Automatic annotation (TrEMBL):
Binding site for Mg(2+) 2: 134, 306, 310
Protein family per UniProt: Belongs to the ketol-acid reductoisomerase family.
Domain of life: Bacteria
Necessary cofactors: Mg(2+)
Gene Ontology cellular-component annotations: cytosol
Name listed for the protein in its UniProt record: Ketol-acid reductoisomerase
Enzyme class of the recorded protein, top EC level: oxidoreductase
PROSITE patterns: KARI_C, KARI_N
Pathway participation: Amino-acid biosynthesis; L-valine biosynthesis; L-valine from pyruvate: step 2/4; Amino-acid biosynthesis; L-isoleucine biosynthesis; L-isoleucine from 2-oxobutanoate: step 2/4
Residues involved in Mg(2+) 1 binding: 134, 138
Originating species: Haliea salexigens
Keywords: Amino-acid biosynthesis, Branched-chain amino acid biosynthesis, Isomerase, Magnesium, Metal-binding, Oxidoreductase
Domain KARI C-terminal knotted: 126-270, 272-370
Domain KARI N-terminal Rossmann: start-end pairs: 1-125
Length: 370
């Protein structure tokens, strides 16, 4: 109906000027090895993430141009933004070893414009910078911190007698609600939705969280920069994803994932007023991710995209179907890193959470009518 040519990849690829590899990272080597012999002379191969080139060292045929167009959100959100006539900020890069005619950058810009990315902003990067910043963002604030925060906040509310259905709903939709403010004015705008007493409490909680979690964020960045993370994950690939599947199943069994939501309405402001700890976790996580990436040599703009900008887009996935949805729509690489972070962060925050009460999660600060 739309005039597209339909056929098998064996039929279509030999005629294609541009071939997009949008498969999961784990499949890249096998897919590229299968596709590359079919590609015509001087064609272009595009990636949306540079893991295969940077971490696996894939060698591409010399006549082929290799580019990357990496929207800073899950593919589902790229589609939604495109449908509404906009786009998402996008990193583009050219693999310098595969730019035989010097046209890679122009091809990448055209592709990014085709997805609507130019309406939100396109930043020229490199394959290495995109991989290292992308892995760091998704492991920490974007996925790992949201998973850790969801489980810890829910369990604390249940411990303190908050009705389970209310606690579940506050967490599931709370991340999306409070991070929406990041889109329109960053952390300052999100914090400004709180009363002055609540804002002060969120600030001090965030500072305490940053002190506790900074070594963990730095460890994740170090493991990414040295390649330790990638080697560990690829060992799990070779073991049929044994750890990934075990951790995914364990997440599915958490109380938060299995508690139905209350039918009672929660107002937009109530998500802020009753979710002070969640706001503190977002503030701490975004700032730590940004600061850690910049300290490792990643440029400010890339660190921003991989921390503050993308957090609301990941939070949207939790609103759809809790942590299951987040972990399904992000990449297999992101999911693996998310679990590594979560398993280390929850025990790390045990003493901190022991001192938390419902005045910062589940209810409003007593007497706060400001």
């Amino acid at each position: 109906d739309n005039g597209f040519t339909v056929g098998t990849y064996q039929e279509l690829i030999p005629e294609a000027d541009l071939v997009l590899n949008l498969t999961p990272d784990k499949q890249h080597s096998a897919v590229v090895a299968e596709v590359m012999p079919l590609m015509k002379q001087d064609a272009c191969l595009a990636y949306s993430h540079g893991f295969n080139i940077v971490e696996e060292g894939m060698k591409i045929r010399e006549d082929l141009t290799v580019i990357m167009v990496a929207p800073k959100c899950p593919g589902t959100e790229v589609r939604e933004e495109y449908k509404r006539g906009f786009g998402v900020p996008t990193l583009i890069a050219v693999h310098t070893e595969n730019d035989p005619r010097g046209e890679g950058l122009e091809l990448a810009k055209a592709y990014a414009a085709g997805t609507g990315g130019h309406r939100a902003g396109v930043l020229e990067s490199s394959f290495i910078a995109e991989v290292k910043s992308d892995l760091m963002g998704e492991q920490t604030i974007l996925c790992g911190m949201l998973q850790t925060g969801s489980i810890l906040c829910f369990d604390k509310m249940i411990e303190k007698g908050i009705e389970p259905g209310y606690a579940s709903k506050l967490i599931q939709y709370g991340w999306e609600t409070v991070t929406e403010g990041l889109k329109h004015g960053g952390i300052t705008n999100m914090m400004d939705r709180l009363s002055n007493p609540a804002k002060l409490r969120a600030f001090y909680l965030a500072e305490e969280l940053k002190d506790i979690m900074r070594p963990l964020y730095e460890k994740h960045q170090d493991d990414i920069m040295t390649g330790h993370f990638s080697r560990t994950m690829m060992e799990d690939w070779a073991n049929d994803d044994a750890n990934l599947l075990k951790w995914r199943a364990a997440t599915a069994e958490t109380a938060f994932e299995n508690t139905p939501n209350t039918s009672a309405e929660i107002s937009e402001q109530a998500f802020y007023d009753n979710g002070i700890l969640m706001i503190a976790m977002v503030k701490a996580g975004v700032e730590l991710a940004f600061e850690t990436m910049v300290a490792a040599g990643i440029i400010d703009e890339s660190a921003y995209y991989e921390s503050l900008h993308e957090t609301p887009l990941i939070a949207n996935t939790i609103a759809r179907k809790k942590l299951y949805e987040m972990n399904v729509v992000i990449s297999d690489t992101a999911e693996y890193g998310c679990y590594l972070f979560d398993h280390a962060c929850r025990p790390l925050l045990a003493d901190f959470m022991a001192n938390i009460d419902t005045d910062v999660i589940g209810k409003t600060i007593a007497g706060d009518n400001t």
